[in-house]
Amino acid sequence: MTAAYPAFHPAASWAGSMPMMQGTARACMVRLIDRRTGAAHRINGTPLTLYTRRPTEAAADLMQGRDARIWEVRIEPIEAEVPR
Question: Can you give the residue ranges of every domain in the chain?
Fold first, then answer.
């Protein structure tokens, strides 16, 4: 799924309405994506990935000072494995 900071992408409302689990927001992976290549932004060869329960805030931080025509933020919920 793709979401972005609200000022830059209409799909961002998805992040604000994420389902709650036991009173807390679900954990998410937030990545900065280069629209020109479709690849995640890398630092020293490692993709920049944030793990958070506040994806909208993380997206805002990642997009701060960046051109939304070049960058987008992808938010993916982390599915917890349920022991059997």
Answer: 10-17+25-77
